[in-house]
């Protein structure tokens, strides 16, 4: 009895299933030729927006007080309405030039020299071996090591900053170290 069940099972596996798959695949192929799909979009009320907020807080050691030093990053995006929904399907990308401009403006809005602090950060990331520190380390390496990817036509001072040593001395006009804020870089 057990042998008969085994034979039926083998029959189904080797004979029935391959034919069933073949017929099913052929039917699906024929159906997909007749189908077409329109690009769909979702319209929001005019003036709607979405925001992303990110903050890095570093505790400051002050006796008997709870104090932290924070950097806030905020991005606001308008949501598409029916009138302009086709604009949102265009290809967009974030390149280093735009990322560096954003960081420079954030440094400047905090009262620091934007370009010099950016160059110091590039120098420190290149000087320290930040790879192998998880996702954040990999992201910092990708963002602040321009030589690790294709040439983007960045200014010469950025590639010079990547090959500079003694970052604290060369970029002493920048009083803070972005890496010191999130790690124990020395």
Automatic annotation (TrEMBL):
Show the InterPro entries listed in the entry: DM4_12
* Domain of life according to the entry: Eukaryota
A Pfam family that the UniProt record links to this protein:
DM4_12
The record's section on PANTHER family has: AGAP007094-PA, IP12060P-RELATED
Q: What is this protein called?
A: Uncharacterized protein LOC107274805 isoform X1
As recorded in Swiss-Prot or TrEMBL, the protein's gene is named LOC107274805
């Amino acid at each position: 009895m057990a042998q008969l069940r085994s034979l039926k099972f083998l029959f189904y596996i080797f004979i029935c299933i391959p034919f069933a798959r073949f017929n099913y695949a052929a039917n699906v192929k024929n159906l997909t030729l007749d189908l077409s799909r329109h690009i769909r979009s979702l319209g929001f009320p005019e003036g709607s927006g979405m925001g992303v907020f990110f903050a890095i807080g570093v505790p400051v050691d002050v006796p008997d007080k709870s104090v932290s030093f924070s950097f806030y990053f905020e991005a606001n995006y308008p949501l598409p309405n029916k009138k302009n929904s086709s604009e949102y399907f265009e290809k967009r990308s974030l390149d280093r030039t735009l990322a560096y401009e954003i960081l420079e403006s954030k440094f400047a809005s905090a009262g620091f020299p934007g370009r010099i602090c950016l160059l110091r950060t590039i120098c420190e990331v290149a000087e320290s071996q930040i790879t192998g520190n998880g996702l954040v380390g990999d992201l910092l390496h990708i963002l602040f090591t321009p030589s690790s990817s294709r040439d983007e036509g960045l200014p010469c001072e950025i590639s010079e900053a990547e090959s500079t040593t003694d970052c604290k001395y060369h970029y002493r006009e920048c009083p803070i170290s972005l890496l010191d804020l999130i790690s124990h870089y020395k």
